[in-house]
Amino acid sequence: MIDQATNIKVRSAEVCGVHFEVEPLAFNKGFFSVDMTFFFKVCVAAYQAPGCPPVCLEGLATFSKKVILFGSEASVRTFSTDAALAQTCGNAPIVNVQVVDPMVLASRVCPCCPPRPRRFAPPQEIACQFDGCFHEVCAERELCITLGLFSIVQLMRQVQIMIPIYDFCIPDKECTAQDNTDDPCELFRKIAFPTDEFFPPRLADLESNS
Hints:
- The structure is a single chain.
- By secondary structure, the protein is mostly beta strands.
- It has one domain (7-156).
- Helices cover 12% and strands 43% of the residues.
- The protein has helices spanning 83-86, 124-127, 184-189, 195-198, 203-209, and strands at residues 7-24, 31-47, 55-70, 94-99, 103-118, 137-148, 151-156.
- Strands 1-2-3 form a 3-stranded antiparallel β-sheet, with no helix packed on it. It has a two-stranded antiparallel sheet with strand order 4-7. A two-stranded antiparallel ribbon has the order 5-6.
- Strand 2 (31-47) and strand 3 (55-70) form a beta hairpin.
- The longest helix has 7 residues, at 203-209.
């Protein structure tokens, strides 16, 4: 479909999974390298001919990123019913990544010179999100997209902290409503007029709140 399309537009892109590899750094005590592979589900519209309705396609795009973060050290082994904590055997911290859906910045169709077969086998939990199967394809053209992605990467550990605990506070007074009335018009008169709803904020207001 990509080889025969006259025009291709990217409609949406979303993160469908992230895989991690955490390794301690040899000469930096307490630091870890986190290799992340982001998997994106991309929806595109492929136009086969002018004036014809487009064909909607879903494809898989990947992006790899490596960061080095301080994760401290630990000499204990954690065993828990939580699957995430059970994987923290040894001194490796837990990796947590928060991402928002990416923004499509640009896209272009590039020729493959010469046409080469594609061998790509994504993880099973990623492949099951797509219809069909991933197999070797000899493509003449490929769709390259540029995505803008915001992410926060964290290394987490369990620590022991002390928090003061107070006894239950049982209320001994009854809360009584003030100015009880059954007149809805009387209640409406006490509501302030929503002036801000009728006037959009100015540029100076937005900059002061940012």
